[in-house]
Amino acid sequence: MKHSELEIKIAKDLLSIKAVFFRPDEPFTWASGIKSPVYCDNRLTLTAPSVRLDVEQGLAEVVKKEYPDCEVLMGTSTAGIAHAAITGHLLGLPMGYVRSGAKDHGRQNQIEGKLEAGAKVVVIEDLISTGGSVLEVVDVLRAAGADVLGVASIFTYRMDAGLKRLSDAKVKNVSLTNFDVIADVAAEEGYIKPDDIKRLIAFRNNPSDENWIGA
Protein backbone atom coordinates (compact mmCIF):
# COMPACT_ATOMS: atom_id res chain seq x y z
CA MET A 1 0.00 0.00 0.00
CA LYS A 2 1.36 3.42 -0.96
CA HIS A 3 1.93 5.75 1.96
CA SER A 4 0.78 9.38 1.85
CA GLU A 5 3.18 12.32 2.17
CA LEU A 6 1.65 13.22 5.54
CA GLU A 7 2.01 9.66 6.88
CA ILE A 8 5.68 9.61 5.88
CA LYS A 9 6.41 13.09 7.25
CA ILE A 10 4.88 12.30 10.64
CA ALA A 11 6.66 8.94 10.73
CA LYS A 12 10.00 10.67 10.13
CA ASP A 13 9.17 13.23 12.81
CA LEU A 14 8.28 10.64 15.44
CA LEU A 15 11.38 8.58 14.71
CA SER A 16 13.66 11.62 14.77
CA ILE A 17 12.72 12.50 18.37
CA LYS A 18 12.36 8.86 19.46
CA ALA A 19 8.66 9.29 20.17
CA VAL A 20 8.52 5.94 18.39
CA PHE A 21 11.55 3.80 19.13
CA PHE A 22 12.17 0.30 17.72
CA ARG A 23 14.23 -2.27 19.61
CA PRO A 24 13.41 -5.66 18.08
CA ASP A 25 16.48 -7.38 19.54
CA GLU A 26 15.85 -6.08 23.08
CA PRO A 27 12.06 -6.01 23.45
CA PHE A 28 10.28 -3.69 25.84
CA THR A 29 7.78 -5.21 28.29
CA TRP A 30 4.34 -3.59 28.42
CA ALA A 31 2.36 -3.34 31.67
CA SER A 32 0.30 -6.31 30.42
CA GLY A 33 3.47 -8.41 30.26
CA ILE A 34 3.51 -8.50 26.45
CA LYS A 35 6.95 -8.22 24.89
CA SER A 36 7.07 -5.43 22.32
CA PRO A 37 9.70 -4.40 19.74
CA VAL A 38 8.41 -0.82 19.82
CA TYR A 39 8.08 1.93 22.39
CA CYS A 40 5.77 4.88 21.70
CA ASP A 41 5.64 8.13 23.68
CA ASN A 42 3.95 10.85 21.66
CA ARG A 43 4.20 13.24 24.62
CA LEU A 44 7.71 13.92 23.34
CA THR A 45 6.15 15.79 20.40
CA LEU A 46 5.15 18.55 22.82
CA THR A 47 8.78 19.33 23.66
CA ALA A 48 9.91 19.36 20.00
CA PRO A 49 8.39 22.54 18.50
CA SER A 50 8.92 21.73 14.81
CA VAL A 51 7.50 18.22 15.21
CA ARG A 52 4.69 19.58 17.35
CA LEU A 53 3.74 22.03 14.57
CA ASP A 54 3.68 19.22 11.99
CA VAL A 55 1.47 17.12 14.28
CA GLU A 56 -1.01 19.86 15.13
CA GLN A 57 -1.27 21.07 11.54
CA GLY A 58 -1.76 17.45 10.50
CA LEU A 59 -4.54 16.95 13.03
CA ALA A 60 -6.17 20.20 11.89
CA GLU A 61 -5.99 18.99 8.29
CA VAL A 62 -7.61 15.68 9.24
CA VAL A 63 -10.45 17.39 11.10
CA LYS A 64 -11.14 19.78 8.23
CA LYS A 65 -11.04 17.05 5.58
CA GLU A 66 -12.61 14.08 7.37
CA TYR A 67 -14.95 15.83 9.80
CA PRO A 68 -15.97 19.15 8.18
CA ASP A 69 -19.07 19.45 10.40
CA CYS A 70 -17.03 19.33 13.63
CA GLU A 71 -18.13 21.86 16.26
CA VAL A 72 -16.06 20.82 19.30
CA LEU A 73 -12.79 18.96 19.91
CA MET A 74 -12.51 16.73 22.96
CA GLY A 75 -9.12 15.45 24.09
CA THR A 76 -8.51 12.18 25.86
CA SER A 77 -7.03 12.46 29.33
CA THR A 78 -4.23 13.14 29.62
CA ALA A 79 -2.30 12.59 26.42
CA GLY A 80 -4.85 14.12 24.05
CA ILE A 81 -5.50 17.33 26.00
CA ALA A 82 -2.64 19.46 24.70
CA HIS A 83 -3.14 18.27 21.13
CA ALA A 84 -6.85 19.07 21.29
CA ALA A 85 -6.08 22.54 22.66
CA ILE A 86 -3.51 23.42 20.01
CA THR A 87 -5.53 21.92 17.15
CA GLY A 88 -8.62 23.74 18.43
CA HIS A 89 -6.64 26.98 18.40
CA LEU A 90 -5.54 26.42 14.79
CA LEU A 91 -9.12 25.69 13.71
CA GLY A 92 -10.81 28.31 15.86
CA LEU A 93 -12.88 25.58 17.54
CA PRO A 94 -13.82 25.14 21.20
CA MET A 95 -12.21 22.25 23.03
CA GLY A 96 -12.51 20.33 26.23
CA TYR A 97 -11.43 16.97 27.54
CA VAL A 98 -12.79 13.84 29.13
CA ARG A 99 -11.39 12.64 32.44
CA SER A 100 -10.74 8.95 33.05
CA GLY A 101 -13.30 9.21 35.86
CA ALA A 102 -15.56 11.83 37.41
CA LYS A 103 -14.01 14.21 39.94
CA ASP A 104 -14.81 13.48 43.57
CA HIS A 105 -15.15 17.18 44.40
CA GLY A 106 -16.67 20.38 43.05
CA ARG A 107 -19.17 19.74 40.27
CA GLN A 108 -17.87 16.15 39.89
CA ASN A 109 -17.38 16.64 36.16
CA GLN A 110 -16.02 13.95 33.91
CA ILE A 111 -16.29 16.13 30.82
CA GLU A 112 -14.39 19.39 31.20
CA GLY A 113 -15.47 22.31 29.03
CA LYS A 114 -18.87 23.32 27.69
CA LEU A 115 -20.64 20.59 25.74
CA GLU A 116 -24.18 21.05 24.48
CA ALA A 117 -26.38 18.03 23.77
CA GLY A 118 -26.24 17.28 20.04
CA ALA A 119 -22.87 18.98 19.54
CA LYS A 120 -20.80 17.41 16.76
CA VAL A 121 -17.58 16.26 18.40
CA VAL A 122 -14.24 14.91 17.22
CA VAL A 123 -12.08 13.13 19.80
CA ILE A 124 -8.34 13.89 19.71
CA GLU A 125 -6.13 10.98 20.79
CA ASP A 126 -2.36 10.50 20.68
CA LEU A 127 -2.14 6.71 20.30
CA ILE A 128 -4.49 3.86 19.46
CA SER A 129 -3.58 0.23 20.16
CA THR A 130 -6.53 -1.93 21.23
CA GLY A 131 -8.91 1.04 21.12
CA GLY A 132 -10.18 0.54 24.67
CA SER A 133 -9.32 3.92 26.18
CA VAL A 134 -10.61 6.04 23.30
CA LEU A 135 -13.87 4.07 23.18
CA GLU A 136 -14.41 4.80 26.88
CA VAL A 137 -14.18 8.50 26.02
CA VAL A 138 -16.60 8.08 23.13
CA ASP A 139 -19.07 6.30 25.43
CA VAL A 140 -18.93 9.16 27.97
CA LEU A 141 -19.51 11.77 25.25
CA ARG A 142 -22.37 9.82 23.70
CA ALA A 143 -23.98 9.39 27.13
CA ALA A 144 -23.82 13.18 27.51
CA GLY A 145 -25.73 13.58 24.24
CA ALA A 146 -22.83 14.43 21.94
CA ASP A 147 -22.81 13.40 18.29
CA VAL A 148 -19.34 11.86 18.04
CA LEU A 149 -18.23 12.15 14.42
CA GLY A 150 -15.06 10.16 15.02
CA VAL A 151 -11.47 10.25 16.21
CA ALA A 152 -8.34 12.01 14.94
CA SER A 153 -5.15 10.48 16.31
CA ILE A 154 -1.42 10.80 15.84
CA PHE A 155 -0.47 7.12 15.60
CA THR A 156 -2.18 3.75 15.43
CA TYR A 157 -0.75 0.25 15.62
CA ARG A 158 -3.60 -0.95 13.34
CA MET A 159 -3.95 -4.03 15.52
CA ASP A 160 -6.81 -6.32 14.50
CA ALA A 161 -8.36 -6.13 17.98
CA GLY A 162 -8.37 -2.34 17.90
CA LEU A 163 -9.76 -2.11 14.38
CA LYS A 164 -12.57 -4.54 15.27
CA ARG A 165 -13.49 -2.74 18.48
CA LEU A 166 -13.71 0.60 16.69
CA SER A 167 -15.74 -0.94 13.88
CA ASP A 168 -18.13 -2.68 16.29
CA ALA A 169 -18.68 0.62 18.12
CA LYS A 170 -19.21 2.42 14.79
CA VAL A 171 -16.34 4.79 15.51
CA LYS A 172 -14.25 6.17 12.65
CA ASN A 173 -10.57 6.86 13.32
CA VAL A 174 -8.13 8.69 11.09
CA SER A 175 -4.47 8.63 12.18
CA LEU A 176 -1.62 10.80 10.93
CA THR A 177 0.58 7.74 10.57
CA ASN A 178 0.62 4.07 11.52
CA PHE A 179 2.82 1.14 12.50
CA ASP A 180 3.36 -0.12 8.95
CA VAL A 181 4.47 3.30 7.66
CA ILE A 182 6.85 3.87 10.55
CA ALA A 183 8.37 0.40 10.14
CA ASP A 184 9.02 1.07 6.43
CA VAL A 185 10.49 4.52 7.09
CA ALA A 186 12.61 3.18 9.97
CA ALA A 187 14.15 0.58 7.63
CA GLU A 188 14.72 3.11 4.84
CA GLU A 189 16.47 5.53 7.21
CA GLY A 190 18.58 2.95 9.01
CA TYR A 191 16.87 2.85 12.39
CA ILE A 192 16.27 -0.89 11.92
CA LYS A 193 17.40 -3.55 9.45
CA PRO A 194 15.12 -4.23 6.46
CA ASP A 195 14.81 -7.85 7.64
CA ASP A 196 13.26 -6.59 10.89
CA ILE A 197 10.08 -5.42 9.15
CA LYS A 198 8.61 -8.93 8.95
CA ARG A 199 9.24 -9.41 12.66
CA LEU A 200 7.60 -6.09 13.49
CA ILE A 201 4.52 -6.87 11.40
CA ALA A 202 4.31 -10.34 13.02
CA PHE A 203 4.17 -8.62 16.41
CA ARG A 204 1.57 -6.14 15.20
CA ASN A 205 -0.62 -8.94 13.81
CA ASN A 206 -0.52 -10.98 17.03
CA PRO A 207 1.10 -9.24 20.04
CA SER A 208 0.59 -12.25 22.32
CA ASP A 209 2.66 -14.53 20.03
CA GLU A 210 6.35 -14.04 20.86
CA ASN A 211 7.71 -16.15 18.00
CA TRP A 212 8.95 -12.97 16.29
CA ILE A 213 11.60 -12.65 19.02
CA GLY A 214 14.88 -14.00 17.71
CA ALA A 215 13.36 -14.87 14.36
Average of the residue pLDDT scores? 93
Oligomer: single chain
In N-to-C order, the SSE pattern is: HEEEEHEHEEEHEHEHH
Please tally the β strands and state the result.
Answer: 10
**Largest sheet descriptor:** 6 strands, mixed
Number of distinct helices: 7
Cα distance spanning the termini: 25 Å
Query: Percent helix among the residues?
Result: 25-40%
Rg is: 17 Å
Which geometry do the CA atoms define? Answer: globular
Which secondary-structure class do the elements indicate?
A: alpha/beta
- Into which percentage range does the β-strand content fall? 15-25%
Taking pLDDT < 50 over at least 5 consecutive residues as the criterion, the unreliable ranges are none
Write out the strand line-up for the largest beta sheet, numbering strands in chain order. Answer: 7-6-5-8-9-10
